[in-house]
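Worked example 2:
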Amino acid sequence: MTTNHDQRIDSVLTTARSGFDQSVRRLEEILRIPSVSTDPTHDPDMIRGADWFTNAFLEMGFEAETVVTSGHPVVLATRPAPAGAPTILYYGHYDVQPPDPLDLWTSKPFEAEVRDGRLFGRGAADNKGPQIVHMAALHRVLKEFPDLPLHITYLIEGEEEIGSPSFRGFLEQRKESLCGDLLLVSDTGSPGPDQLVVTTGLRGLAAMEVKVFGPRQDLHSGVHGGALLNPLQAIMKICGSLHDDLGNVAVPGFYDDVIPPEQWERSELERLPLTEAKYAEFLGVSEFFSPTGYSPLEAIRFCPTVEFNGVGGGYQGEGSKT
């Protein structure tokens, strides 16, 4: 016997299937905007990306605006509900990492292409794709239940990939309107399409740029080499001192406030289908360098870390220079 509940589910699924192509087209639109936040030449694209999301929310019936900040703009969209209704806050970002190196792309990074049932393009997974999934699903739900008693706030920023330098100022400015009962972020991973996970905590980020200076001018290594510490050698000594030979961070006090994982957390992690061997194969490495007492898969989930994201110095042109 088919119940009213079953019929309602069938109706929602049919609506979802009929709207899928439209959702994919909308995702393709936003993927074509090269919103690379770290590159100033893409500043106009950042504005285009923010405005695209703002207009999309307006089409959905939300109150939406593109908020100017000291850096890239933030998209803020709200759907009011009766007093006393719970509030859910969605967070995401529309900026993406640079697509370099371009020669490793099978298709152009900002021209979305479908291959083997998957959509490829910079930002398809991080983080434009999840935002479109949220919005498409929510649009269908609100069409089915227009009087849903739920306050909804969307906050989509444009600086997540560069450490969100102007985000704090925005939050302080708008904090009264950003209170909620639940914050939902879809910027994490799942083991596979048949095993989804709910992530309850993530590692934060504190970034710094360190510059090391030596003599007042460029020195010829054949004339002056051996008389002083080369700044490049100095920065390597600094970087090398931050870890010991076992993979532990050697900064004094670094682990003081770190709470080790419970045994049940380690046991839950072992249930995932990803093995250490598969992880090594995926990364293309032959060995790991995780801290003492932690497997590589535990280290990336339970441990704080010190990383080097780039080093530069000395002559940068073609060939060599002494």
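The radius of gyration is 24 Å. Residues 1-18 have pLDDT under 50 and may be disordered.
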